[in-house]
């Protein structure tokens, strides 16, 4: 037995244990990326660094007191003092993570979804359209975005500006496609109304029936709240109605989409001006919360009223009241965010975040990289002429959606690099101008994965952190070819010996490799991928 | 792909073995045969041996010697060691690529003749810049000399069996000489001496002795250390008089030999007398034909022959002013040295077992073979205070003790001859010159720790060292020495990985794996080669062991400082007058080494006007320029000796102001450097410290095994910042980031090499921060960083057109008798014009912002 002190906690542990094992026994969590209990320590990622302050039994001079050592491989010794949760240790771990991130090229979230202010799950919508599942596509759209057709008419589509596919055949026509999905629903005459949550019994007032107010009303209604929208105009729509030409935005479209909100049970108090027709004090007594979204049409009036709001009364702001911008989709996103804020204030529960708190982006992809990424199954055709977008046939829509590179990371939830980077506050751009690893994709399209529905395996070398776990799994499972290290230094990556295809390297261990990979380097390949 | 004949693979496997440890030797043999590693051959290896596809792929892609694509007919290896770097190896490489029309990423000329490869270090630092074409080594190259180089090589390769350096590694004593009688001629035949033509001198002496039929001995000896004077020819007259001739050419040989060796036959003597008389006549008549002049002996001024050791014993044959000067010079170089590892330097035939034994060689070993006393032996080494000469300075006796004490009956000893540091060549010289001494040291170590098997791990870049150790081991085997000691020793060659100098990586390499270091503990003393207790000692450490045993620990400990005992062998190179190999007592100061032994920096001020920026007058004549941020580089006053780079990529740059610090392990560490293996590269004021730091980081980055995050990615991020600094693109916060990251890499890397990788940056930041700040402002004070300098032709130019003819970029229009102008948009800063220009100060290097910018700026200031 050895007496070890980890973060002031004295432990008696058997000799031969690693610091990591000792810490785990004591319930102290030490982050690891390259370590798996089934295998010998790789000591590669160095995210498990701890400060070891007692001499380790060894040749003196080998280890001086107070050295950063990997917990996964350093064995305990009697009298050892270990620090795991100190600023110095955290700084070392954070640097390790930042270095790994600087050599980790990928998008946690696809750039389109990241750029769209509503953070609509665009790749999901495109995947659904690509599979011909327009109902699912509509559900994905409506989950995040009110008025998909209206926005499809007026939105300048910032999402398309960041589309990686722009480098090859033009950006995906995201805007036209969500419009198309919505339009297809509207023309049925009975547009789909998303299911509401259980009624909360709370009644919320929204001032302003513009894009922000409509969005707030929509999302609050979906969350089960009673909503009344006040506006001093005779019709709902705000700038959408009074600031756009009917040529750009046909009014029947707007009316039909507002109709969906009405169908969710939202009450309208139109021709009602705040202050003049209804005092703020009145709203504060009648309603549980208030959203001020009377944006660009009446900013000064709102400004005057603000001081009258009772302290502690739940209120949130959205839309052009916050900024002078006129981007409808931005107001829509703010309406949603205001709705979520109010929901959180009233119920204490927070709707799922639209975007993870930490994410990395691959930056601009060049044409060569896009070509490589297209092997994951993107259609090679070019973007359809935008002038034809109103006349998209279902087959055209499918073909256009199939162009999507599916840039987002399939392992965003399980990625440990992302998790620890968030936990340690790592800055993904600490090293500007860092060399970018060559993007390399290996695909095994055979039905390699056990539960993958015929899916194969993809290896994206750009996301690999060279931890070595995949090599260990392949060797342990007795793969005849297996995986090998290739190169050294920064170029170090796993590879298939003799340039053979990935399917030959992992004949039966693909699932295990997929699961053990701590990042999105190994992911399931879509059935359309080209090995 | 054309099909590959795989039959040789089977023979290779039969020769090298089938175990995993045979992986590297098999790959080396395959590459020797095919000149690259054909995939079908590797697949066949996996089918026939225990080597797995994962292992062979990993190993083949780890070591830089292995090629996966076919090479050209000839391989040109350009050394990028530290000394070569500061002497412009990149310019040579650029010039070669240009003239062979090799455009990156290709590495082979379009005609398939030449493949260009960078090598980390050829260990011929005193000949910098050096390159090898196939087996031939060429020293003192320059961009302008490339056409001549290629012509020379074509010439040499046309003559089969030419006596060019490297082709004949094991010369036999010429038949014309009779050993043991008459005059003795000695020629130093280390591999850098051979590169400078010693082999040709040796052959010429042999031929001349044969021609004369003289009573003389011709002897090959090891390294003398006086690299600055090679080829060296030493003559020992029967009376004991010694003469050393430096920088001997083939033409000199005849006259030197005739001067000392008396022909046997009377007719030959008479013929010689006539020759001499004619020569005298020729010398008196300057207009005489060149054929005759070539035959004449060198005039006293050209003779640089002097006696050495002992200096005052006799009168030299020809004492001229030049002789006296060089005698003093050599005396300075040699007198401060203490010979322990290099004992009997320049006297022993490296491979003559009997000669080694006739002296005091093997005395130490025999003592312990006769009466085994491992504890006594370890106590002797411990008492001597010997510390590992490989870099970290771990007490040798202690290490031996730990291996001896480790449980188990199977133990190993390894001589670490993987001298990867650019700028270091001590180990190569010791292995080439004193193979028996190192074998004796290794055998003593084996006796002490109880090992029955030993290994030499030697860089593949050192073929002569490998050959000589192999030949010496054969001798020891034939004479039953190894059997007597119950020991088997074999040799393994590296395959181009600096990191394999680290002991755990070296062990991984010996086991046939990628040379990836692992976390210590456990140390090899407990868990080493094939998990057995293993002793790894540097060859220099081992070379000291026999002397310590023979003279006793006190004699060794009498040299040195309180904590660093004995002597240290250094490879002195770079911008120093007398580069070479020296062995000095610990505690000597760097200044003593550089100034007393080395004679101070190379090319003192204004020699031939070849210094960049000797044009201080140009700036003086233009007041606006001296006030503007557009100073002429090198115009800075101050001593030319700027710094010493010690310890290679793990070491640091010690500024001239601190050169009076006595050298020992602790003192160097306190300055931020390390002793390292002992490469000393002297830097002068034309060396940019940011560039030096960038150079070392580029080296580390290239050699990083890639195992741990901090070294794999961190050194690259440091390099990127340094590259931006050298390009004038870095922003001020990046300097801070560079320093922060350097400290983090030092504190958190897994192995010693990663931990010490930031040292070159940290020391230069510590002592030369001003230079970093100048680079932030777009200025390279030393005039070195290509992006921040420009070449300008001053009004001194007389329009001779030499530069215009030679400029590889055609950046200088051919304007005879008018001052030439450089088209900056075409200039690639290759330095050719400055070298070729015969007028001092006509071509200057300037650094700073673009002059146009400067003008704009000064206008704005006004």
Please report which band the strand proportion of chain B falls in: under 5%, 5-15%, 15-25%, 25-35%, 35-45% or over 45%: 5-15%
Structural class category of chain B: alpha/beta
- Order the strands across the largest sheet of chain B as they lie in space: 14-13-17-15-16
The proportion of strand residues of chain A reads 5-15%
CATH topology type of the largest domain in chain A: FAD/NAD(P)-binding domain
Q: Unreliable stretches of chain B, pLDDT < 50, 5 or more residues?
A: 161-180, 285-322, 604-638, 851-862
Note down, in words, how this protein is organized.
The complex is a heterodimer of chains A (531) and B (862). Chain A has 531 residues and is α/β, with parallel strands linked by helices. Chain A folds into four domains: 101 residues, Ubiquitin-like (UB roll), CATH 3.10.20.740; 117 residues, Fumarate Reductase Iron-sulfur Protein, Chain B, domain 2, CATH 1.10.1060.10; 145 residues, 3-Layer(bba) Sandwich (FAD/NAD(P)-binding domain), CATH 3.50.50.60; 89 residues, 2-Layer Sandwich (Alpha-Beta Plaits). Helices cover 34% and strands 11% of the residues of chain A. In chain A, the strands form four sheets. A five-stranded mixed sheet of chain A has the order 2-1-5-3-4, with helices on both faces. A five-stranded parallel sheet of chain A has the order 8-7-6-9-10, sandwiched between helices. A three-stranded antiparallel sheet of chain A has the order 11-12-15. In chain A, helix 6 crosses helix 8 and helix 18 packs antiparallel against helix 20. The longest helix of chain A is centred in the middle third of the chain and has 20 residues. About 1% of the residues of chain A have low confidence. Chain B is an alpha/beta fold and 862 residues long. Chain B folds into seven domains: 56 residues, no CATH class; 85 residues, Glutaredoxin (3-Layer(aba) Sandwich); 137 residues, Glutaredoxin, CATH 3.40.30; 172 residues, Rossmann fold; 70 residues, Ubiquitin-like (UB roll) (Roll), CATH 3.10.20; 97 residues, Up-down Bundle (de novo design (two linked rop proteins)); 76 residues, Alpha-Beta Plaits. Chain B has 37 helices and 19 strands. Chain B has a five-stranded mixed sheet. In chain B, strands 2-1-3-4 form a four-stranded mixed sheet. Chain B has a four-stranded mixed sheet with strand order 6-5-7-8, covered by helices on one side. In chain B, strand 15 and strand 16 form a beta hairpin. Chain B is globular, with a radius of gyration of 28 Å. The C terminus of chain B is likely disordered. The interface between A and B is large, with 56 and 49 residues.
